[in-house]
Specification:
Layout lengths: L10 H12 L14 H18 L4 E11 L4 E3 H8 L10 H6 L3 E3 L7 H16 L8 E4 L11 H9 L5 E4 L6 H14 L5 E8 L12 H7 L8 E11 L4 E9 L7 E2 L17 E2 L1 H23 L8 E4 L4 H10 L11 H4 L6 H11 L8 E8 L3 E8 L1
Length: 392
């Protein structure tokens, strides 16, 4: 059998076909198809870097706005204990609060998705930063939960914000997703690939709670799930003149041997289509051991990189797991406890959204202002830790 090879079409025909196709592209997609626009955008994104280079200064990644969103529905620890009838099974009253410090948390009621919560927090961060949707160059969605396996939730967030000029993608690393995303965005800005970036987390963790927790034995893996709360947090980062403000240092560390200690086993290729694997399970004791072993040293390293002493810090914003763990890490790392933000008592563990939520709350309360030194401290399943030192 002979293969019949067609003669190539004339170049004029190919050019005409492409031009004809481009004429039918929807208006919102023109950013990616207009000839020469990508080159113009690259030139615009690098102009600030060139200008500052001429002046002998560097580009800095400045936190320009932070926003939070919490659902209205308050769920108390007492109501959860009553729902599960824990006292009937020999578990003492107020067990959840005593073991974790969590008095209440928020849960969605109306079917809100992760991107819904992220979008609401994003609008607040954008308003504070004085940024419109069409000014955003990059959007990173950074959460433990997401709308669906595919595509990246950043796409749904982009649509809800109508930020059509942005390049969007997800960064996922459990509760450390947000601090990892800050590090990625910092790299984008410092290399001239982004002038204005948005990072957003939307956590609907209530969907991952196993409500079949009855006994003390169940509590070994199920207690952490009962502390989970829903919420959204967002941050706008802008490129600016390095005048002492912005991200000053970061440090990240990982120990992958700890991955079995906190899991949602479903949703991947290991346990496809198995509803029993869709719940959050955590060996809180083992996670705490790994955190205490690795995080204090990582905090000291980040401070050394920034050239700061712990007593110079104006605000410390840790990931919110339990009050007990926050107190322990603060003491081990010699952090000023009175400057440590705690929200876990009223919002529970909101995973990757906990740090932007806590920072936004501190800003709203006037606990921090421009020029203050802030330390963001993340710890996550895996195990991983991440620290960002920034001057607001």
């Amino acid at each position: 059998m002979r293969l019949m090879l067609r003669r190539p079409k004339p170049l004029k025909w190919i050019t005409g076909t492409i031009n004809n196709a481009l004429g039918h592209v929807p208006q919102r997609a023109t950013v990616s198809v207009e000839l020469g626009k990508e080159a113009r955008e690259k030139k615009m994104l690098s102009s600030l870097s060139l200008e500052l280079e001429k002046r002998g200064t560097k580009v800095s990644s400045i936190i320009a706005g932070v926003g939070k969103y919490l659902p209205d529905n308050i769920v108390t620890s007492a109501s959860i204990e009553k729902r599960l009838d824990l006292q009937k099974n020999g578990i003492p009253e107020n067990f959840i609060e005593a073991m974790t410090g969590v008095v209440e948390r928020r849960h969605v009621l109306n079917g809100d998705s992760s991107s819904d919560l992220a979008a609401r927090a994003s609008l607040k961060a954008m308003e504070q930063a004085g940024v419109s949707a069409d000014e955003i160059d990059v959007i990173i969605f950074a959460s433990a939960t997401h709308d669906m396996c595919e595509p990246a939730t950043a796409n749904m967030l982009q649509e809800k914000l109508e930020a059509w000029n942005a390049h969007v993608f997800d960064v996922k690393n459990a509760c450390n997703s947000f601090v990892n995303a800050i590090d990625v965005m910092d790299s984008f800005i410092r290399t001239g690939r982004c002038r204005i970036g948005l990072i957003a987390a939307g956590e609907v963790l209530s969907a991952c709670i196993n409500w079949n927790v009855k006994t003390l034995e169940d509590m070994k893996l199920g207690l952490a799930g009962l502390t989970l709360g829903d919420g959204g947090g967002a941050m706008v980062i802008k490129a600016g003149d390095d005048d002492g403000r912005g991200i000053r240092a970061s440090h990240f560390t990982s120990d992958g041997s700890g991955w079995p200690y906190a899991t949602v086993l479903g949703g991947g290729t290991c346990h496809p289509r198995d509803p029993s694997k869709e719940y959050f399970l955590s060996d809180s004791l083992e996670i705490a051991k790994m955190t205490m072993k690795n995080l204090p040293g990582a905090i000291r390293t980040a401070l050394q990189k920034a050239g700061w002493r712990s007593e110079e810090l104006d605000l410390v914003v840790p990931h919110q797991v339990t009050i007990q763990l926050i107190d322990r890490i603060s003491k081990m790392a010699a952090l000023p406890r009175e400057r440590v933000v705690v929200t876990v008592n009223k919002y529970g563990n909101t995973a990757a959204a906990s740090i932007p939520i806590a920072l936004a709350e501190a800003m709203e309360a006037g606990r921090v202002q421009r020029g203050d030194k802030v330390l963001l401290i993340g710890g996550a399943a895996g195990w991983s830790g991440g620290i960002i030192a920034a001057v607001l």
